[in-house]
Amino acid sequence: MNQENYVIFKGTKDGVTVLFQPEAPFDIICEQLSQKVEEAGKFFDKVKTSLAFKGRVFTEEEEEQLLKIIAEKTNMDITFVKTENNELKQLSELLEKEMHPHNLTKFHKGSLRNGQKIEFDGSVVVVGDVNPGAEIKATGNIIVLGQLKGMAHAGCKGMTDAFVSAVYMAPVQLRIADIITRFPEENKRGPKPPEYAFVQNGQIFVMALS
Amino acid sequence: MSEVIVITSGKGGVGKTTTSANLGCGLAVLGKKVALVDADIGLRNLDVVMGLENRIVYDLVDVVEGNCRLKQALIKDKRFDGLFLLPAAQTRDKDAVSPEQMQKLCDNLKEEGFDYIIIDCPAGIEQGFKNAIAGADRAIVVTTPEVSAVRDADRIIGLLEANGLNNPTLILNRLRIDLVNRGEMMNIEDVTEILAVDILGVVPDDESIVIATNKGEPAVSNPESRAGQAYRNIVQRIMGEEVPLMTFEEEPETFMEKLKKLFRR
């Protein structure tokens, strides 16, 4: 059998690299891989290593298939798979997992004036006032270190456990997820402590923070 | 050193044109060379307030389009030396001029040796506003102590800052001290708390303004007018002098007035 070498195993200091011939058909690659792994047999037994696929880009299904072959034939303990296409993707997925929308926060220094708007996928902190006519829309929480007199919409993609908090809460309107309230007029006057608005039983409640 | 000041407000009818006219006259009285530019194309009235309507030959659009030289369009004021008006076109609209053209116009006016160039901005936030602020070095926002005017002023300050005109100053116009004392009108603190800008002056509501405006004689030249006094103070502040804000206590009755009242009963 005079077959070209479509699959080459290489040991590097970072782990094992598998070089694939870019043009070879996928089923032949699978065949060769399975053959090579079998030949190597005990060599990979109980080796703890990371695996790097190089030379060509695989789809997720193909990748899974290749890994399955390796898992079937050896006792290799693969700690991490690095491939041409998913190196970045994996990183960003990892980041994304860490940075769930409400874990990302936008800080705005200065006041928001009438007609100005902040829209953010995450939480928003405003260090300043939010004047009437200004809007904040966040998928996470909203904190205003100043007077909130405009419109605030926390959890705007449906996160009902989002909250809105302000040093002086007197918004024109308050929204959390899909619940909209008018802020009572009698609560917009005089000195009062910082407050905190949240959803309970489908209603927005406002509580003093003290 | 010349300075381009835009007088703006967002809301209409709060006194931009009156303020422009009074500040222009006030600065001219103190010996400054001043150009008043009416940027309210299509709805001009700075010329009427100044009493110069019948002298208009060329206007701002003529200058921008090159139909005349800048000097030909500038109308010399009938009362004060050193005060000139560049009127707006009445038969055109705001789109007749672009912000770049306004910027160039302001530069040309600076080259003419004016100390102050005051631009009367139209109401609104559209093309006319963008034109008016294009060449400005600093902005003065006029508002009245009404919720709607203050809201619009807030919006305007935001837009000014977005266009690089930071730290505009505020003129609070038409304050009625009797209403403020009764708690039925916003006071100075209420307004500055929302707008968070430095206050340049407070002008009391004064019927002499209406009379002066209708006559085409700015109130700043009337020594008896309270509003005129307020404008004179503002002029001094523009020139960098520190003048305390006017006190707005209602004038205490003199002994004779009290006596007269007593007898009338």
Overview of this structure, please?
- The complex is a heterodimer of chains A (210) and B (265).
- With 210 residues, chain A is an alpha/beta fold.
- Chain A has 2 domains: 91 residues, Transcription Regulator spoIIAA; 108 residues, Pectate Lyase C-like (3 Solenoid), CATH 2.160.20.
- In chain A, 20% of the residues lie in helices and 38% in strands.
- Chain A has 3 helices and 15 strands.
- In chain A, helix 1 packs parallel to helix 2.
- The relative contact order of chain A is 0.08.
- With 265 residues, chain B is of the alpha/beta class.
- Chain B has one domain: Rossmann fold (3-Layer(aba) Sandwich).
- Helix content of chain B is 42%, strand content 15%.
- Chain B has 12 helices and 8 strands.
- Chain B has an 8-stranded mixed β-sheet with strand order 3-4-2-5-1-6-7-8, with helices on both faces.
- In chain B, strand 3 and strand 4 form a beta hairpin.
- In chain B, helix 1 packs across helix 11 and helix 5 packs parallel to helix 6.
- Chain B is globular, with a radius of gyration of 19 Å.
- Chain B starts with a strand and ends with a helix.
- Chains A and B meet through loops of A and helix 7 of B.
Write a compact overview of the structure shown:
The complex is a heterodimer of chains A (210) and B (265). Chain A is α/β, with parallel strands linked by helices and 210 residues long.
Strand and helix layout:
The complex is a heterodimer of chains A (210) and B (265).
Chain A: E1 7-12, E2 15-20, H1 26-40, E3 48-54, H2 60-73, E4 77-82, H3 86-98, E5 105-109, E6 117-120, E7 123-127, E8 135-138, E9 142-148, E10 151-154, E11 164-169, E12 173-176, E13 179-182, E14 195-200, E15 203-208
Parallel strand pairs in A: 2-3, 3-4, 5-7, 6-8, 7-9, 8-10, 9-11, 10-12
Antiparallel strand pairs in A: 1-2, 11-14, 12-13, 14-15
Helix pairs in contact in A: 1-2
Chain B: E1 3-8, H1 16-29, E2 34-38, H2 46-50, H3 60-65, H4 70-73, E3 75-76, E4 83-86, H5 99-111, E5 116-120, H6 127-134, E6 138-143, H7 147-162, E7 169-175, H8 177-181, H9 188-195, E8 199-204, H10 207-215, H11 226-238, H12 255-264
Parallel strand pairs in B: 1-5, 1-6, 2-4, 2-5, 6-7, 7-8
Antiparallel strand pairs in B: 3-4
